Amino acid sequence: MSDLIAGLDSALDSISNTTMGVAVSGGGDSVSLLHMLAARDKGLRAVTVDHGLRPESAQEAEQVAAQCKQLGISHTTLKWEGWDGTGNLQNQARQARLRLISAWATRESVTHIATGHTLDDQAETVLLRLARGSGVDGLSGMAVQRVDGQLTWIRPLLHARREDLRRYLVAQGIGSIDDPSNDDPKYDRVKARQALSLLAGMGITVDGLAATAERMQDARVALETATLALANECAVVSGAGEVRIDAEVFNAAPDEIRYRLLSASLQWISGEAYRPRFNSLRGVLDRIDLEAGQTLLGCIIRSHLGNVVLRREVSRVAPSCPLGDVWDHRWVVTQTGSQGSFVIAALGEDGLRFCDNWRETGHAREVLLASPAIWSEDRLIAAPLAGMGNGWAIGLKNGKKGLHKSVMTR
Questions:
Q1: Which of 57, 331, 357, 358 is surrounded by the fewest CB atoms within 10 Å?
Q2: What is the pTM of this model?
Q3: Residue 297's closest CA among 319, 276, 283?
């Protein structure tokens, strides 16, 4: 048990309970995590997502709330009601869980969310990704920490075996919930769990697959370092947020590094959490010299004057948001020109026609259409990037080096 706690403390080094939330489903892994974190310090907050997919789910959330009350921990239950019965249920539930918890964390001023993923989960993830033909990134499995905007997701039990956590619960006299879906063979993860018991005879074990993930993580860092070097050599960000890549230098790089730089650029511009499918990236690179352009991941990719130019697709930008928020994943107001009820939204055709001097900015019309502007209902107040500042200023949240930072995922 001391190894369990030591590993948890190492993963949470310098992270206080007062800034942390813990996601608790009621299962053995997350309940173990809840109690271990509660023993560290005060200030922890817990959250449970009730997906409403089983009749027992509401009662299970109440059981978690009762455990938290005994521990003196604030608890919130979030309900998901967004599934229409179509599509991949597990994926939609996972995405909904992330959205709901992220919004809760913002409201609670929580900067870190701890989850109960274990070494067994890591091995199952690697096996599933191997079955899908994943490369280095997929086989690197889950990281101990993952940064998503202002929120960091932590897996402090990634060193722990599931069976060790069950022994911890028994030793502490703590009850947990057994979700029947964890034994339902219609789910791929359950199939992977069952396959591991058969593969053990061939020497393919949980520990072995987890070790493979560690080696792939090292390889991933090496590839990302090479990608960062290429970005520093050939990629620049304009004041309007487009990415320009020197085609000659870019095309001379190994394909894997080119894929990574292109993917990182598209993700940085669009704010998408996941890179495009490999075949989609390869298709773009095969046609990279087309001046007419291509679209992928909410971006436009063009060849122009010896550069590969990537811009935000105006039809894919985020809706309007309050002045204090980050708009379209990248843009923030850095100087306020006047007081009033204003929002940030795309300039678009309706706004650009009021910007008489937009050509003098040197920015392409296409990039300005998707650029941020200040609006009051349907009235344009300012469009700083299009030459209509009116005392306002808007900039990239992490500056022009935000792209280069986004290349490194670890």
A1: 357
A2: 0.82
A3: 276
